[in-house]
C-alpha cells in the first residue's frame, strides 16, 4: 500500500449502505415478478403474448438484481459502462446465429424430409 | 503535462512493467477486488451468453419438434399434475438466497459480523437446497424419462445436451458459490476482517452470488418457459 490514507478514504466512499427497507421491497418485487412469469406457463399463454411477457418479466428481474442487489445503480458511470456495454456484443452473436439457424433449418427441410 | 524523465526512482523489470501500466492512473474508484470480481462476472456473462446462443441455434435449426419443457418438468403432487413446479420452487429458493445475501452485505457494513455471517450461512443453505433439487431433477430426467445428451424419447436430440450443459454449468456455479460463501462467512465469524477493518469482501462475495441468481433468471426464461 503506497498511500493507506487515500485507500482508507476511498473505501469509506464506496461503502454501499442503503436502507434495509429497499432490499425487502426489491425482494418482494422479485417474488411477485417470478410468480407472474410462472403464471405465464401455468395459464398456457401462447404466441406473441407468451414471448413478450417472458422477455419483459426477465428483463425487469435482471434489472432489479443488477441495479439494487449488485449496487450498480450507485456506481460511477465509468464502471457501469465497462461492465454493462460489452455484453451487448452478444446480441450481434445472437443475430448471426439466428440467421445461421434458419439457413440450416431450410437446408435440412430441403434435403432430409 | 511535461514529459516525465526516466530516473533512478522508477523501478525496472517486472515491477517496472506494473508501475508503468498502472502508475497513478485509476479508472475505477472502487476497491480492486470489486473491479476484478466485476470483470470475472463479465467474462462469465459471455460464457453463459454463448451457451444460451448455442441452445437457441440448435433449437431453431432442428426439424424434429422440441420437447415441451412445461410437460417434461411437470410433477404430480397429490394427484394433480403441476407444470414446471419444481423449477418454480428452485427459482423462489434462489431469489430468497439473493435476499438474505443482500441483507448480509448490509449487516457487514454496519459491522454486525454475527448477523452478517449467519445470513451468509443461510444463503449458502439455500444454495445447497437449490443444488439438491437440481440433483433430484437430473436423476428424474435421466432415470425416469430416459433423457441423454445424445437423445431422448420426447423429441429433438439436442434437448438433452443443451439442458445438461447449461443447467450443469449453472449448478457448478451455485456449488462453487456455496463453498466461497461458507469460507468468507467462517472467516467473518472468527473476526478475520475485523483486524483489517475491511468488510468489502462480503460485498464482493455477494456480487458473485447475485450473478448466479441473475443467470438463473435468463435460464428460467429461455430454457424452461420458452
What's the name of the CATH homologous superfamily of chain B?
Cytochrome c oxidase, subunit III, four-helix bundle
* Assembly annotation: heterodimer
Number of E strands of chain B:
2
Q: From the coordinates shown, what is the CATH architecture of chain B? A: Up-down Bundle
Reported for the largest beta sheet of chain A, the result is:
none
* Radius of gyration of chain A (Å): 22 Å
- Give the largest chain-chain interface (CB within 8 Å): A-B, 58 and 58 residues
Given the structure, what is the number of helices of chain A?
A: 5
The helix content of chain B, as a percent range, equals over 70%
| Average pLDDT of chain A | 86
Beta strand % of chain B: under 5%
Structure keywords:
heterodimer, A: 113 residues, mainly alpha, 5 helices, disordered N terminus, B: 226 residues, two-stranded antiparallel ribbon, 2 strands, flat
Give the topology, please.
The complex is a heterodimer of chains A (113) and B (226).
Chain A: H1 4-13, H2 20-42, H3 47-69, H4 77-84, H5 89-112
Chain B: H1 13-22, H2 32-61, H3 69-72, E1 75-77, E2 80-82, H4 85-109, H5 113-144, H6 158-190, H7 192-196, H8 200-225
Helix pairs in contact in B: 2-6, 2-8, 4-5, 4-8, 5-6, 6-8
Written description of the protein model:
In chain A, 78% of the residues lie in helices and 0% in strands. Chain A has 113 residues and is mostly helical. In chain A, α2 runs antiparallel to α3. Chain B is mainly alpha-helical and 226 residues long. Chain B has a single domain (30-225), classed as Four Helix Bundle (Hemerythrin (Met), subunit A), CATH 1.20.120. Chain B has helices at residues 13-22, 32-61, 69-72, 85-109, 113-144, 158-190, 192-196, 200-225, and strands at residues 75-77, 80-82. In chain B, α4 packs antiparallel against α5 (113-144) and α5 (113-144) packs antiparallel against α6 (158-190). The chains are: A mainly alpha (113), B mainly alpha (226). At the A-B interface, α1, α2, α3, α4 and α5 of A face α2, α4 and α8 of B.
